[in-house]
Amino acid sequence: MNFKTIAIHAGHDPKNHLGAAMPPIYQTSTFGFRDVGQPGPYDYSRSGNPTRAALEECLAALEGGRRGFAFATGMAAETTALMLFSSGDRILVQNDLYGGTYRLFETVFRKQGITAEYVDLRDLDALRAALATPAAAIWIETPTNPLMNLTDLAAVAGLARAHGAITICDNTFLSPYFQRPLDLGIDVVMHSTTKYLNGHSDVVGGALIAKREDLCDRIGVLQNALGTCAGPQDCYLVLRGIKTLGVRMEEHNRNALAIAHWLQAHPAVSEVLHPGLESHPQHSLALKQMTGFGGTFSFRVKGGEAQLYKLLRGVKVFLLAESLGGVESLIDHPATMTHASIPPEVRQRMGIGDDLIRLSVGLEHVDDLIADLDAALAQ
């Protein structure tokens, strides 16, 4: 079946739920046993819940994986993924990435003996050099948050396999509608389901999807042992959002690309970072491994801090807020918001300067969004 059909039907069979067209919310902590020592398909909601199972089956179908796993937050998904590793393991990590992920590596897992080594994954020679020393995994964001750098997934997956490393790819920015990393050889796909998968800014959640049976088994054990799973109400909300994922992503993509082209010609803007623009240095790679560009991108503003703050305070339709992927448009200043947990000198080395703005372009009429930015930039 096609993606939009799978998004609506995968994970739920009405015949198994009294004909209910939508997956019911099984808001229960425990389930009765059939007899002594004979549990039914579910016994305790940390170990499994029918609403969560519906979401997890849908996620696996959308990403082309064997199993999906739903978590309470995106960071819970990342934490569970990192528990696949042991003290002494070395992980090669995208050198520009989400601030919360950087904080998790540096303030939590480094103390546990799991070391992150930051590598520019655009540079395959640099990756080969880093792999000369054994590494347990390669941690990828593509596009990166917020610089919109891309990783050649097929090439990195091939190098990782040759060196015995697991590949983990954050696919939050594009969703499986525009990119399917497992099809390109990646081992584990990760999502903040808070973002495009849910799409309505009314839930937080995370997901891992894998194709290899051994990894599926290990993630399943960790999800249960750590108790990082998502609750049934949150799973229901993500499932509801997924049903419109295809149509939403198409509109996000159209709106964001139109705004990126408009910003590129604006005299107050010094650079637009959007992989759908021919000016993006990895535009050809975007066309090769992505079927669309998503609704989130960044740009740089001329004029210093005063002009930047006028823009952030001047918008009326865009909401100054963290997160992305909702139906409403958001504007974010990474240096003081989503990436504030990264030390300033590290941010500068990454390229996340004070002049950088990130947009999550929503589903409002694109003319209204451009008019809002135009008026704010005019200030």
Summarize this entry quickly.
By secondary structure, this protein is of the alpha/beta class. 39% of the residues lie in helices and 15% in strands.
Can you put this structure into words, describing what you see?
A 7-stranded mixed sheet has the order 1-7-6-5-4-2-3, sandwiched between helices. It is an alpha/beta fold and 379 residues long. The mean pLDDT is 97. The chain has 2 domains: 240 residues, Type I PLP-dependent aspartate aminotransferase-like (Major domain) (Aspartate Aminotransferase, domain 2); 134 residues, Alpha-Beta Complex (Aspartate Aminotransferase, domain 1), CATH 3.90.1150. The radius of gyration is 21 Å and the shape is globular. The longest helix has 20 residues. Helix 7 links the parallel strand 5 and strand 6. It has 14 helices and 12 strands.
Write the layout of secondary structure elements.
Blueprint: H1 3-9, H2 50-63, E1 67-71, H3 74-82, E2 90-94, H4 99-109, E3 115-119, H5 124-131, E4 137-141, H6 153-162, E5 166-170, H7 175-178, E6 188-192, E7 206-210, H8 213-226, H9 232-242, H10 245-264, E8 269-273, H11 283-289, E9 296-301, H12 304-314, E10 319-320, E11 330-332, H13 344-350, E12 356-360, H14 366-378
Parallel strand pairs: 2-3, 2-4, 4-5, 5-6, 10-11
Antiparallel strand pairs: 1-7, 6-7, 8-9, 9-12, 11-12
Helix pairs in contact: 2-9, 3-4, 5-6, 12-14
